[in-house]
Amino acid sequence: MTEEIIIPDKQLAKKEKYELLIPQIEALVEGEDDLIANVANMVAVLKEGLNFLWIGVYFVKENRKGEKELVLGPFQGPVACTRIKFGKGVCGASWEQKKVIIVPDVDAFPGHIACSSLSKSEIVLPVFKNNEVAIVLDVDSERLSNFDETDEKYLQKIVQMMEEMLKSI
Ligand code: SME
Q1: pLDDT in tens, 136-148
Q2: Nearest protein CA to atom 2 of ligand 1, as residue
Q3: Domain-embedded: residue 142
Q4: Is the whole model's pTM more than 0.90, yes or no?
Q5: Spacing, Cα 165 to ligand 1 middle (Å)
């Protein structure tokens, strides 16, 4: 496991930032199979390296009534809502639709759940285990239209790493 992360220069384009960070994230989680520990470090590197407002995951879990809902997992950034129901907000919509959702302006997304009033745009990516969503990766930005296909492409690599880890659980 690497313990020191080289944070890309702020001036670099985000593609370059992701390309510097992703191999370091791979090295960071190599040889460790604890999902929570790995996800905690993965989101810490991405938060520091890409200056997001918030990045974290929600796990699909059963509540006491036996209903599945999203429950907050490791994250970096302001305090976030703990539970999200199926289909609710951007995270619940990504879970329901089983697809990546990019929201350029959160105020224009019906049902968006505002955990922080500073959040202006968002991307949510589903993480699958046995063709079902097991986790959603959520990233928020203080800037409008911050996320595009570059973020989707590189964040999918993070998703794939999580999917690999889920295989052994
Ligand atoms: N905005 C999300 C809720 C989670 S927070 O952004 C951390 C949503 O609408 O699902």
Answers
A1: 999 999 999 999 9
A2: 113
A3: yes
A4: yes
A5: 24
Structural domain containing residue 152: 14-167
- pLDDT for the residue numbered 106: 98
pLDDT at residue 3 greater than cutoff 80: no
**Ligand 1: nearest atom to the Cα of 58:** 4
Does 6 fall in a domain?
A: no
Closest CA to 155 of 118, 123, 131: 123
Number of domains in the chain: 1
In a domain, 4, yes or no: no
Task: Identify the residue whose C-alpha is closest to ligand 1 atom 6.
Answer: 115
Residue 29 burial (C-beta neighbours within 10 Å; 0-12, 13-18, 19+): buried
The sign one gets for the Cα dihedral 62, 68, 72, 74 is positive
Q: How far apart are CA 81 and CA 31, in angstroms?
A: 32
Closest CA to 132 of 40, 43, 59: 59
